[in-house]
Design goal:
- With 497 residues, the protein is mainly α.
- It has 2 domains: 7-330, no CATH class; 334-478, no CATH class.
- The chain is built from 22 helices and 2 strands.
- It has helices at 5-31, 45-63, 66-87, 91-97, 100-115, 117-125, 127-141, 153-169, 180-187, 199-204, 209-236, 243-259, 272-277, 283-298, 301-307, 310-330, 337-370, 378-388, 396-403, 406-421, 425-440, 459-478; strands at residues 41-43, 266-268.
- The protein has a two-stranded antiparallel sheet with strand order 1-2.
Length: 497
C-alpha cells in the first residue's frame, strides 16, 4: 500500500490538481478576473470503497493472492478511464438539454447524504471538538468574522481541535482518539517511495474481466454524470470550465495512475463553491498537488492522522455540503424548487439503504461470532430480517428500488419535474422515456447492468416510466393546459449550456 499504491495515487492527484490549476489560470487570463477558483479534484471516495470491497477483496479471498486482487482493481480503473474520456464528448450535449435544477438537484442529493451526514454525525459523537470547530467555521465563512492576522478559519478550527484533543488526554478523557503511542507508530512508517510502472499487473488482471465490467460500466457512467454536475456547479458559482476537457482530463490522469499502480479513479470533487467561498483561487490547487506528492511519497499521511483528530476536519465537509445543497436552490428559478426536492429523494433512499445494509451486516457478523450462527443460515436470517422490516414501517424494498443508480435517477426525476412545471410535456416525456431505457438495462433502479430475464432488470419500473412517457407525450401533443405564469423576477427555465 505505502510502497506502490500511495506513490502512484499521489502522482495521479498531482497531475490532476496541476491541470485544473492551469485551466483556472487560462480562465482568469481570458476573462481578466482575479476571483477564479480551480476545480477541486482527487480520488473518488465512493469508488474507492467499491473497487476495494466489491472487486479487490473478493478476488483476493477467492484466489488467496492479493496481487491478483490489485491487478483486478487496476483493470477496473483502466476501463473507467476510457469511459470518462469517451463520455467527455457526450457530456456537453447532456448538459445542454438538461435543466440546471436537475443537474444541481441530484448533486445536492449526493452532498446532503453522502458528503454531509457522516461529518455531522461525527461532530455529535465528539461534540466537545466537533461543535466548537463547527462554530469557528460558521462564524468566519458565514458570519464574516476575521481571525487574528487573517489566519484561515479552517486552520483555526483544526488547531483548536488539536488543542482540545491533546489537552483532554491530560485529564484521561481521550477525546479524538489521539495518543503519543499512535504518533510513535506513525513515524515508523516514514520512508521514501516513488511510483513504478505496473503495466504488466494491469494486463494480467484481464482474466477477471467479466466480474469487473459488471461494475466498471455503470460506475463509469456515474462518474461521467457526477463530473458533469460538478462543472455545472462551478459555472453556477461564476467559473465556466469546458466539460469535455474536464472529463477527458479525469480519464487521462486516471489511466496514468492506473498504469503506475493506482487502483482508484480520479474525479472532480463536489465543493467548488465552498472552496471559492473560503477564498480558494488558483494556487490552492497547485499547492494541493505538491503537498499530496510530499505526503504520499514520504509516508507522512499516517503522521498527520495521528496528530490531528478527524472530527476537527469534519465541520469543513459539512460546510461544503451546506453550500452545495443551498446552491441548487439559489441559482435556479424559485418555481423549480419542487423539482430539486424530487431530485434529492433517490439519494435519501440510497443513503438509508446503505445504513440498513451496514447494520444488517454488522449484526450477522456479531451473531456468527457471539451466537454461533451457522454460515449456511446467514442468507436465511438476512432475508427474514428484511422481510420483517415493513412491519416496523421500514420499506426496504422501496429504498432498494428507488435508490438504485441514484445520481441518474435524481437527474431524470428532476428534469421531468422542471419540464412539467414549465408545461413542456414533450420534453418531460423524453426524459421519462430515457428513464425507462436506463431502468430496463439496470442503470437506474437496479442492482446490476443487464436485461434481467429479457424483460429488463426492473421491468415494473421500466414499464411505469414508459407509460408516463406516453402519457406526457399525449398531453403535450393533444392536450391543453394553462399557460405557465411566472413572476416577473422569476425567469422561465432554460436548459443549462
Amino acid at each position: 500500500m505505502f510502497g506502490r499504491i500511495l506513490p502512484a495515487l499521489g502522482l495521479m492527484m498531482c497531475l490532476s490538481t496541476f491541470y485544473y490549476a492551469w485551466l483556472a489560470y487560462r480562465l482568469a487570463e481570458r476573462t481578466g478576473r482575479s476571483d477564479v477558483c480551480a476545480l477541486p479534484s482527487g480520488v473518488s471516495v465512493p469508488h474507492m470503497f467499491i473497487v476495494t470491497f466489491v472487486i479487490m477483496l473478493p478476488i483476493t479471498i477467492k484466489t488467496g493472492d492479493p496481487m491478483k486482487g490489485w491487478s483486478a482493481g487496476l483493470v477496473w480503473v483502466f476501463f473507467q478511464s476510457f469511459i470518462l474520456m469517451i463520455g467527455g464528448f457526450i457530456a456537453p450535449i447532456i448538459r445542454k438539454i438538461t435543466p440546471r435544477a436537475a443537474l444541481l438537484g441530484t448533486l445536492a442529493g449526493v452532498s446532503v447524504t453522502f458528503i454531509s451526514m457522516r461529518p455531522a454525525l461525527e461532530m455529535y459523537m465528539t461534540p466537545q471538538i466537533g461543535l466548537v470547530c463547527f462554530a469557528i467555521i460558521l462564524a468566519s465563512w458565514f458570519g464574516g468574522i476575521r481571525y487574528y492576522k487573517g489566519i484561515p478559519a479552517g486552520l483555526v478550527a483544526i488547531a483548536v481541535g488539536m488543542i482540545i484533543a491533546w489537552g483532554s488526554n491530560l485529564f484521561g478523557l481521550g477525546l479524538g482518539g489521539l495518543s503519543v503511542k499512535g504518533v510513535g507508530d506513525a513515524f515508523a512508517s516514514f520512508g521514501f517511495s516513488v511510483p513504478i510502472p505496473a503495466v504488466g499487473q494491469v494486463f494480467s488482471g484481464f482474466e477477471f474481466l467479466g466480474v469487473i465490467l459488471v461494475t466498471a460500466i455503470p460506475f463509469g457512467i456515474y462518474d461521467l454524470v457526477e463530473a458533469m454536475d460538478n462543472v455545472e456547479s462551478a459555472e453556477a458559482a461564476g467559473d465556466e470550465y469546458p466539460t469535455t476537457r474536464v472529463l477527458t482530463a479525469d480519464g487521462v490522469v486516471s489511466l496514468i495512475g492506473c498504469l503506475m499502480g493506482n487502483p482508484f479513479i480520479n474525479a472532480v470533487y463536489i465543493g467548488h463553491p465552498g472552496w471559492k467561498a473560503m477564498g480558494g483561487r488558483i494556487g490552492y490547487s497547485a499547492a494541493t498537488g505538491i503537498m499530496v506528492i510530499v505526503l504520499s511519497w514520504f509516508g507522512i499521511i499516517s503522521v498527520l492522522l495521528a496528530l490531528v483528530p478527524v472530527v476537527a476536519i469534519s465541520p469543513i465537509l459539512l460546510y461544503i455540503g451546506m453550500l452545495i445543497g443551498a446552491q441548487a436552490f439559489q441559482t435556479t428559478p424559485v418555481k423549480h424548487a419542487p423539482a430539486i426536492v424530487l431530485a434529492l429523494t433517490p439519494h435519501l433512499a440510497a443513503w438509508a439503504k446503505l445504513q440498513i445494509d451496514t447494520m444488517l451486516g454488522s449484526t450477522i457478523n456479531a451473531a456468527q461470532k457471539v451466537g454461533g450462527l451457522a454460515a449456511d443460515k446467514v442468507g436465511d436470517v438476512k432475508a427474514a430480517a428484511i422481510a420483517a422490516l415493513p412491519q416496523q414501517g421500514v420499506l426496504y424494498h422501496g429504498l432498494d428500488v428507488m435508490g438504485g443508480g441514484s445520481i441518474l435517477t435524481g437527474l431524470v426525476l428532476g428534469a421531468i419535474g422542471v419540464f412539467v412545471i414549465e408545461r413542456d410535456f414533450v420534453k418531460a416525456s423524453a426524459f421519462a422515456l430515457s428513464g425507462a431505457v436506463l431502468t430496463y438495462f439496470g442503470f437506474m433502479h437496479g442492482e446490476a447492468v443487464g436485461v434481467g430475464g429479457g424483460l429488463g432488470v426492473t421491468p415494473a419500473v421500466a414499464l411505469a416510466y414508459a407509460v408516463v412517457a406516453a402519457g406526457f407525450f399525449a398531453v403535450g401533443k393533444y392536450g391543453t393546459s394553462a399557460a405557465s405564469v411566472s413572476h416577473p423576477q422569476m425567469p422561465l427555465a432554460a436548459p443549462a449550456e
